[in-house]
Amino acid sequence: MLKSKTFVKKTRAGGVLKIVREHYLRDDIWCGSEVCKECKDEAPVLQEDACIESNLCSYPHYLIPDTNVVLHQIDILEDPLIRNVIILQTVLQEIRHRSAPAYKRIKDAIHEKEKHFYMFTNEHHRETFIEREPGESANDRNDRAIRVAAKWYADHLAKKTNGGSLKVVLLTDDRANKEKAEQYGLIVYRCEEYIKSLIGNPELVDRLALQPDDQNEITGSKLLFPEHLPLSRIQSGIKNGVLLQGTFHANRDNYLEGTVFINREGEDINEVLLQGLQNLNRAVHQDVVAVELFPKERWVAPSSVVLQDDSPNDEDAEEDETENKLYFGNSSILKPTGRVVGIIKRNWRPYCGMLSQSMIKEATRHLFTPADRRIPRIRIETRQAANLAGQRIMVAIDGWPKNSRYPNGHFVKNLGTAGDKETETEVLLLEHDVPHLPFSPAVLSFLPKMPWSITEEDLKVRADLRHLGVCSVDPPGCTDIDDALHCRELENGNLEVGVHIADVSHFIRPGNALDQEAASRGTTVYLCGKRIDMVPELLSSNLCSLRSNVERLAFSCIWEMNHNAEIIKTHFTKSVINSKASLTYAEAQMRIDDTTMNDDITKSLRGLNRLAKILKGRRTEKGALTLSSPEVRFHMDSETHDPIDLQTKELKETNSMVEEFMLLANISVAQKIYDEFSECALLRKHPSPPPSNYDILIKAAKSRDLNIHIDSAKALADSLNNATVENFPYFNTLLRILATRCMMQAVYFCSGMDSDFHHYGLASPIYTHFITHQEVRCYAQRASVAFHTQLFFKNKGIINEEGFILFVRKNAIIILIPKFGIKGTVFFDNKDKPSPHLIFDSEIPGVSVPVPESEPEAKKPKLDC
After folding, report:
1. Burial 453-481 (b: 16+ CB within 10 A, else e)
2. Does the structure show a pLDDT above 90 at 503?
């Protein structure tokens, strides 16, 4: 059968376009059940014995959830107990349009064989497809389509079982939909009603997401926040310039403050400061919000106080003392201020943290404190609070009513004991959204069959570079060697320099399960003592690892240079290489420095190192910035894998050598892809910061009578190079750490959508990420270092180390201990009256230890930590 839909669409040019869509209907679409012997054409998905113990449904049954149940109760549907579920095409299409995360999760559940979830294409079945009636809304039509499909299933199964006991249960939280389904003769329950009926599974009740009606029942009647504007008024206000749209970033150090970064280019104002709970108006970190700008006379400076939410667990704290708590900062640094008037898009996710038990005995409502200080505390209902004490748990937000001090949410799962190494690693991976489950059989099925070798066909289409003195230089213990280099002198007196990257694309075909999984992971993540691979180990540590003395496929960027590191010619090619040495940075440096060594690899390294120094000097002359952030390296116990020693990383010339050629390859590739694909090259730029970003850096330098010039990257680089203090060599490093905080975030962009390609930090006119060298760190890696630092200090007692004050606040100081790479907050014991007793509260979760008073005149206080 064929149905067609015809409609007209207005084009951007103002014309009218007639569109005809054909819709095919069939009567041979399988129901997916084991009980059906007629329409089955493949392995059944839905089980005949679909039993689950329930006070409501004592018979075997299949579940059909409507769209809102899937959207809001996805944590319930993912539970192993919930099986034999029919996901209608109507529901799946709505989910796809409304929530990408929920769509991915339900698709994953459908593909999980043990779950027995079946996707029924009701929109293409002759007996379940329905037309939208005149005057019927799209939502009402879809609700009717769900009821029609559920009725068809009920009748179909009854026929196949001769009126047997196998039933279909529709789950909906929509009252109108439930009433109409009952009139239709369907078995229908609210999701909460059904879940509470399940016998012997009380933990599932905790995972129920609260519906709006339920949320109103557990909150007070007093309005604590202004009403959010409807989306129509928000869109009109943004269009007229009355409102601004941006992304909300909560302040990690002050829960009463945040900043909205304006998304639209061309706006005079790039960011708006928000202060006070009512002006934050229920925005959560990363939400896209609409803000109303205050007049200039109401603009203020950022707060100068460190403030954490420590209100009682059992009460809704009101904002009576908000203004007193904020302690406005230096009035000479005024920021545009405003208030949130509406939420355009929520970017909530499940959050990891710990339960703060209510002090009221037998209470079921408790506050959850997220590990990320930028997220507000969340109120949940649970009957297992005693069992969850001291555990890391995951919680999802359901909503934030205007009469509730905190958002309402529900328990998702228990991750394990707080402080346990495996648990904390799981937390940091989840918090930083790092995919880390084992690779699925579908992904692994696309790996090459072993034994594998390079074929004659490969050699015909690739440059044979196996004779070159290629070597790799990496951190100790590296097994996934993804880049290698070579340098040799040519007959014409010039030098040939090559960067060779493992050709992973040879083993991954576009669009298959392996490609999709690699795209989802995006990069390999390096934690302390653990690696989360982007591709399976057979590729990452074997076939795509440029190990020494084995032939490997590569993609090579080769330059002809003169001895002044000036590029004469650039060449790109797929290649076959055979690395002659896999070296650590220390081993490569030793070869360069050892005058008795003169083999080909050592000569190549010396040539690379000499050219790298010239390249770096040239970048520095153009204004490339050398910033700083303290990094530490751990020595692990071979049996327990716990850190037994840590020290600040010492960078060698070979670190810089590798970095320079990775940068040069990225720049060369950026220029090449732009020349070839001028409208669609994927590039990366680093915008220059607005002058106000440098306020903290300029102020810090002035404390030592030094001037920082910010007219250009070159001026800033020169100022930092000249900012030295006698008898205080670390002062320059501190300034460079502050300068890092002043920088903007680098972004990817399409060349056809922007004309400004400049990379401020690298002083390069064009740049991309052809190579991201493995020492580039992500936030998850930093969190792993922080946790292992905490493990190192466990049971160490008092350690006396040198620390430096980075920032001074009204009630605290921010300090850095370079040896351990620790940056944390030292609170005054009394927040209103500074006390000689200090508390060191590191940014590592769970670390809070006393330190003695520092000498007032000491510029570099000794802190016991």
Report:
1. ebeeebeeebeebbebbbbbbbeeebebb
2. yes
